[in-house]
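Input structure tokens:
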């Protein structure tokens, strides 16, 4: 590798992405440099580009989930799975690289994804601090980052295809507490919804119904684990309710997972949940406005449980790797990733992601 590293920089919201050269970083003990193989452009990157996330220190190098090869390491590295990680290994890392471990969110409430000091690659680190994002030919892995050698059976394409959506879906599944035989509705057929559909099937759901669009994403959701899909634009809300009731003895789903980010999805999701069921809201990563629900009908009388799900923790990263190692050959996570955009093509990638032409655009920094 040369002495400089090429990266794509989001200088400010709504501004064109710029290419910049960064010095190759000096590595303190415990740090490593990952030669990037691929990164992604996900919905979060579109939100970043729209300036819809608070406290982002632009300019940034986006790309929070990435794959690569350990180009250099200073001292021995141990993966999150306890195994050594060496130079030349294919490696991946958990994007949240700092939480304080001392604040009330971290210690008292046990909600480290809400730690106010949380730092996330590709989102919360300024490009002025260095190579903290995947839209670059190399990523600086600071000491303490949760890294792992990619298991031999896991293809880079499956890891990055699942990407952040898979990690989020692992956390959603934990919150959803799906039981063997449950009927599950997933609202949304983006990367998160498709991954959640696949994991709900793996978790033992007897029936998985995925609602979304367009047709190719619904086809992929079925290939990944959904039994039935309902096309959002061509069905009415009443027709979708009828379809779910018909599939659940007239009761509604045991668990409904929201992965749309649409304000009006919430009332519908609660309509689709059975009495005493559970509703997990994970798609409202930015403020999409108020959702109108009826507290009597949707919550109180229904005796329903509503849970939020924010971000992910290292255990979700590790479990995602285990899922990929066991099922990656059979469940085509790689198909969620589409296109390969070079560092000079990321304006186009953002526009394609924004227009939902691709569930997830992949970044190839060497193209
Ligand atoms: Zn904290
Ligand atoms: Zn993402």
């Amino acid at each position: 590798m040369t002495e400089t590293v090429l990266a794509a920089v989001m200088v400010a919201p709504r501004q064109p992405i710029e290419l910049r050269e960064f010095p190759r970083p000096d590595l303190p003990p415990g740090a490593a440099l990952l030669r990037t193989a691929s990164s992604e452009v996900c919905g979060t990157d579109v939100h970043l580009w729209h300036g819809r996330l608070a406290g982002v220190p632009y300019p940034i190098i986006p790309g929070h989930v990435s794959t690569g090869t350990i180009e250099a390491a200073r001292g021995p590295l141990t993966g999150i799975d306890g195994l050594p990680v060496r130079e030349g290994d294919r490696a991946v890392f958990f994007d949240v690289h700092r939480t304080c471990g001392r604040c009330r969110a971290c210690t008292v409430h046990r909600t480290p994804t809400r730690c106010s000091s949380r730092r996330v690659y590709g989102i919360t680190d300024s490009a002025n601090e260095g190579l903290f994002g995947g839209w670059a030919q190399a990523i600086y892995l600071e000491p303490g980052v949760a890294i792992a050698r990619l298991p031999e059976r896991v293809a880079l394409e499956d890891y990055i295809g699942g990407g952040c959506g898979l990690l989020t879906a692992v956390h959603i599944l934990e919150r959803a507490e799906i039981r063997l035989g449950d009927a599950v509705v997933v609202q949304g057929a983006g990367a998160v919804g498709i991954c959640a559909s696949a994991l709900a099937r793996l978790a033992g759901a007897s029936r998985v119904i995925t609602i979304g669009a367009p047709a190719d994403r619904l086809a992929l959701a079925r290939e990944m684990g959904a039994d039935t899909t309902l096309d959002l634009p061509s069905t009415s809300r009443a027709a979708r309710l009828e379809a779910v009731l018909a599939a659940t003895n007239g009761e509604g789903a045991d668990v409904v997972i929201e992965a749309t980010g649409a304000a009006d999805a919430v009332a519908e999701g609660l309509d689709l949940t059975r009495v005493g069921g559970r509703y997990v809201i994970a798609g409202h990563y930015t403020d999409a406005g108020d959702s109108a629900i009826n507290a009597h009908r949707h919550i109180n009388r229904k005796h329903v449980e509503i849970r939020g799900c924010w971000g992910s923790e290292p255990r979700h990263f590790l479990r995602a790797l285990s899922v990929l190692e066991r099922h990656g050959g059979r469940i085509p996570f790689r198909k969620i990733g589409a296109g390969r955009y070079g560092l000079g093509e990321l304006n186009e990638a953002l526009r394609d992601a924004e227009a939902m032409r691709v569930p997830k655009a992949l970044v190839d920094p060497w193209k």
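The mean pLDDT is 96. The chain has ten helices and 19 strands.
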